[in-house]
Amino acid sequence: MSRKIKYVYIVGLFFLFLSSCAGLGQEGDIKGKMTGPFTATSKLAVVIVPVADAIGGGPNKSELNKNRFTKLPCSYPNSVEYPLNRMHQILYNQVIKICAVRGKEFKVEFPNLFLQSEAQKSPQPLTAWILQNSVVLFKNLRRRNVRVENIPYPLQERTRQRVATLRFPYHIVSHRRSYSAGTRFVLEREEKDQLVVWALNPHRLKDEKVYIPKKLCLINDRKTIEKKIADYVRLVKLWSNLEKGYIPYILGGASWINKCNSSNAMTSYPFRDAKGVSVTSNGRKCYVFDRKKMTKGVKTGYDCSSLIYSAAQAAGIPYYYKNTTTALNRLAKAKKGDKLEKGDIVWRPGHVLVVTEVEGGLKLSQARGYSSGYGRLYEEKGKVLFKGANTAEKFMSDYILGKPLVRLRKSGAVSKTFKKWHILKIKSAWNGPSVIKGNAAFINFKREINEKSR
User: Fold this and answer.
1) pTM for the full model?
2) How do residues 290-300 score in pLDDT, each as one tens digit?
3) Computed from CA positions of residues 179, 182, 188, 193, in that sequence, does the dihedral angle turn out positive or negative?
4) Please, what's the b/e burial string for 309-326 (b: 16 or more CB within 10 A of its CB; e: otherwise)?
5) What gap in Å lies between CA 29 and CA 301, rounded to an integer?
6) Are 188 and 196 in contact (CB under 8 A)?
7) Which residue ranges form the domains of the chain, and what is each CATH number?
C-alpha cells in the first residue's frame, strides 16, 4: 500500500470515529466539563458519584489544577476559619444547578437547602464548589437519549414520580459502588420483597433498572403529616442506634456509607492556614479532628443539622434548613399549651437535637462534635443530657416558664447553662417557603417530569 493511500485510509478512519462519537461532546464533556454559554436547561446536572464534598470557597489561582478535596478532616474548631470548609455533601442522583466554572470545579446551587439569618427577610440559596467530574450535565444525558424523567425531582413536592429513598447504605453490583442512606431513586414497580428502580450507570451513562430490597427503603406514597413525622423519627433512631458501630460526626457531612468502631479512634493534629502555618487562638495551638483508619476518599457522616434535614427529607418532610440559625428563624417556637412531640427540635446556640421519645421517659438523638468527647450520632435519655429533663412534660414546662437549659457531663456534673434555648415544632416545616420559587431551571424540570411520566 502506497504512502498516499495509507494516509487517506487513516484519515478516513479518524473521521469515521468522530462521526460515531457525534453528540457526545469532547472528552470529559460527557460527564462534567462545561462548554458553551449557560442556558436555563444547560445549568442542570445530576451527581454520578456516591457522595461528593462541597467546599464553601472557590479555588484560587494556585489551586486551579489541584484537588483541594483530599485534605478535608472530620471536623475543625469553630473559633477560627478553616481554609477548606466542607459546606455540604451531595448524594448520587441529586440534581443541582451550575452557577460558575473555575478550573476543575463547578460552583453549584443546591435546590433542597437554604440559609437565612436574622437580618435577612427571605431565604438565600446554598451554593458551594464541587469537582466537575462529580456530575454529568443534563444536556449530555439528552444527547445519549437518557430519560431525565428517571432522575428524581430534588424537592419534597408532589410530582408524578414515585421515589424510593435508602434507609441504609446499599451496594449496586453493576455500578461497582455503594450508595449512601438518603440516596433517592425513581421507582419503576414494586415486587413482593424488592423494588425495581431506575439508576443511571455512572460508567456507561445509561439509565438501567436495578433491584433493591424493599426493607431498605422508604417510598414517597401519599401519607399524613403524622406518618411522615413517624418515619422521620424512626430514621433518626435507626441512625443513632446501629447494632455494631456508629455513624461518625462529620462537620458539613450529610451521608452515611461506612460506620466506625473501636478501630476508628478519634485523633487530632495542628490546624494550619493556607500557607501551612500553625494557627493559634489566645496563644494556644488549634487542632482539627479526624478518625484513624477511615476509608480513603470522601468521609461520610452527619453533623447536628444535616442529621435532621437528611432524615426529614428522606421521610418526605419539606425541611430545607441548612443550619441551626435558619431552623430557628423559620420553624415555629413552642408556646403555652403545646405538648412536646416526637420529632420536635431542641435548639440552643450552635446545636440542635431531635426529640425521639416522649412517653416512658424523654429521649433525644443528636450528632455531637469531637470537642465534647463524642464525635458521633447517638440517642440518650433526657435526664442524662439535661438537668431536670426527666419527662417530656417537665421539659416543656421548664421551657415555657423560661428556665435555663442546664447541660450535664457524663458524670452528671453541670457542663454549661444556656439562658437562650428553644423548642421548635417540626410540623411548622410545612408552613415554610418553596426553595425553588422563581427558579426557572427546576420548574422546567418538574414540568418535564410530569409530562413524560403520564
Assistant:
1) 0.88
2) 998 887 789 99
3) positive
4) bbbbbbbbbbbbbbbbbb
5) 31
6) yes
7) 44-59+72-143 (no CATH), 148-223 (2.30.30)
